[in-house]
Amino acid sequence: MEEQQQQNVLAAAFPTPPPFWQSFTPENLSSISSLRAAEPQSSSSKVEPDPATELPIRLLDLPAELRCLQPPEPPVEGLYRCFGDLYNMNDPLPSLEEQGIEQLYTPPLTPTSNNGGKHTDRALILKRIAKSLLLNFLELVGIMSVNPEQYQEKIQDLRTLFINFHHLLNEYRPHQARESLIQMMQTQLERSRAETQGIREMKMKVEGILEGLSHAKLAEEKENEESGNEVVEDRRDVWEALEREFG
Amino acid sequence: MADILTQLQDAVDQLANQFVASIYYVHKHHDLQTLSKTDTVRQQQKNEGEDPGDRNVDPYPADVFKDGQKELAQDLILKEQQIEYLISILPGLENNEKDQEQTIQQLEEELKIAEEERKEAVKEKEAVLARLDTVLRSVKRP
Q: Where does the record place the region Disordered (chain A) (predicted)?
């Protein structure tokens, strides 16, 4: 049996889900949420909870079948693998000085700092560097047309400019990641609202039809009392109304 | 959403490539000049066996060369303008991290509410559909 499974694992196009998915039954989920609600918030109330990092309360002494429902602590350090390469969890962007490159700009407030800095000056610096790149290239061509031997210095300048540009750009990445998250959430919100709206409208429509039907029925019953011949005609109206609505 | 930072990075890399390509073009295809009257432009011997490309200058006619130069220069300016445009549309230049976190939390709340509403609407819809179903069943075909 064990061997059989091993072979299946090897042959499968996708890896099987981790074994604990079977613990997520509706009963287990409801029982853990009731346990969580019962737990007094003594441990977390001491520190002001940071909503960004807050996790569901961790319960100790859980029955075995509920243990997998508790999310583990996110790893703080270590290595991870992505597309076959190993990465460190905390890999800070090395500063330009550490790489032995001259820093050409006064560092704007980094996007990770909380001191209320805006990034417009960052964009300004980027634009300046881009312009300097072009100007330096022009100078390089000029120098080379006069004395081709003296390219070294200008090439070095260009190199420094490029590295500075890239560095500034990559410092901005965490900021863009958050910004993308905001945009994604906004689209999701809009989609969800549109869906609700659509459902409501459909519901109204169906209710309208039901209303119409009940009127028709009442009329039909009246007609029934008066004469039986009209009934068929009346029912045909109902069917036509239905076809109009759903066709 | 398009990843503008990566686009920007690629654009800058392309600019660097264009620098190299421009210099290479000028270096490779410039015209040969005589420095004094006694000089003559030496005719290259075209040996079949030798690799003709690498070290030798391959002069273009003056107008073709000029056109090439002009095109390369225009491309450089164009790329520069692209870079500046990309910089100006970087997302969230106005926000700092705190604003972003607040927005994210707010959106999270709103999403929860919207999801609840959606579930409720689905329930209502199902109830109405069931009613419609019973009515339809009770109606006889004429």
A: 1-52
